[in-house]
Amino acid sequence: MRLTRYFLPVLKENPAEAQIVSHRLMLRSGMIKQQAAGIYSWLPMGFKVLKNIENIVHEEQIRAGHHPMLMPTIQPAELWQESGRYNDYGREMLRIEDRHGRDMLFGPTNEEMITDIFRSHVNSYKDLPLTLYHIQWKFRDEVRPRFGVMRGREFYMKDGYNFDLTEADALHAYNRHLVSYLRTYERMGLQAIPMKAEGGPVGGDHTHEFLVLAETGESEVFYDARIEDIRLGAREIDYGSVAQCRSILDEFTALYARTDDTHEDAIFVETPEEFRRKARGIEVGQIFYFGTKYSEPMGATVQDAEGNQVPVHMGSHGIGVSRLAGAIIEASHDENGIIWPFEVAPFKVGILNMKQGDAGTDGMCEQLYSELTKAGLEPLYDDREERAGAKFATMDLVGCPWRVTVGPRGLKNGVVELTNRKTGESEEIKPELLVSKLS
Ligand SMILES: Nc1ncnc2c1ncn2[C@@H]1O[C@H](COP(=O)(O)OP(=O)(O)OP(=O)(O)O)[C@@H](O)[C@H]1O
Ligand SMILES: [Mg+2]
User: Could you tell me the pTM of the whole model?
Assistant: First the structure.
């Protein structure tokens, strides 16, 4: 992308309404625009980031054997009356009446709808296990939308639902989700710690929330500091292996880690004092096992091997896809702007032309632009007639993992400068070696 052709409405001033750094940087770098309280447009660069996050979520869910699909945003009220949640959900639910006077709602989550789909089409235990998921916009009329996309009213969420014959099978699905979520967050450069949590309106007391530690997080958390050293890393995972998924769950949940809803001082004191931490975190996901809470009232049953009709065991699993854009920035920025982890970066390399209009630098920038594009490295070329200082500021704000600076002095010596956004380290490199270095 060439900056002169792009739509990147950067702001020079800090927007007054933004209280936290991710909100400020998303507005300043032209990623989002607020349209109403808690409702945002995703401008081209923000949209690219959102799609990169979404793609990682898809890849990891498909790898775990879960099937992507798409349910609508608008749901009929009847399904929620069947489960009994229509009244329970209260004012967070946006209720709509259509022209025929039918009660509809903008879905805050999809347990009821997926259960309806399941009961319409699945009758036998032979079709289990089954996990379906989608990534779709949700609406929750939050009392206090704030912090930009972190607590929106309209937000983008991955929600998945497992259907299993037995509790043991459903617990394997739970563990499988835990592992796939850990992989998902690590690919985004995040450490999200699974913490024992509370069920809330989804129900069930078997649940973990995934929290990214950050001072601006809305949740208060208590944990054993040694948990910060555990990583999934590049280990080989067999999602069919009950033992492996279970052992990863055990590994990640052995140490104390709880949100304030489930925190118990009496248990926490068993952790040596030097490791006890009280901190704040951003909830980027949650997994639940809730047994037959929905399948029983909604009649989602299958025939088992003995010919009995039995309600299926279910769980649901959510990732805050749009919230993650903010959470990643909270976890990765400096005073000059965003520092994108490679996989979510909207552009992997920025090309900065120090002397626009100079035949030498223009020619080299064009050449690098074309080579990097061919190599799939998605360059962002700042080809504006601007002072170098302004270009550096924009590049730092936008936060590409790498920057190539092309100036007349370097070219005289046959080199360009390659800078790592995160470490700030620069090296001179021959332009012909750039692509192989970055690939
Ligand atoms: N208002 C929101 N704006 C952005 N993301 C959200 C919002 N509410 C929930 N999410 C994201 O969706 C994920 C799954 O939804 P879940 O039903 O667990 O949310 P929740 O527990 O009600 O969230 P919270 O406690 O933050 O209100 C959450 O872990 C979070 O990352
Ligand atoms: Mg939650």
Answer: 0.97
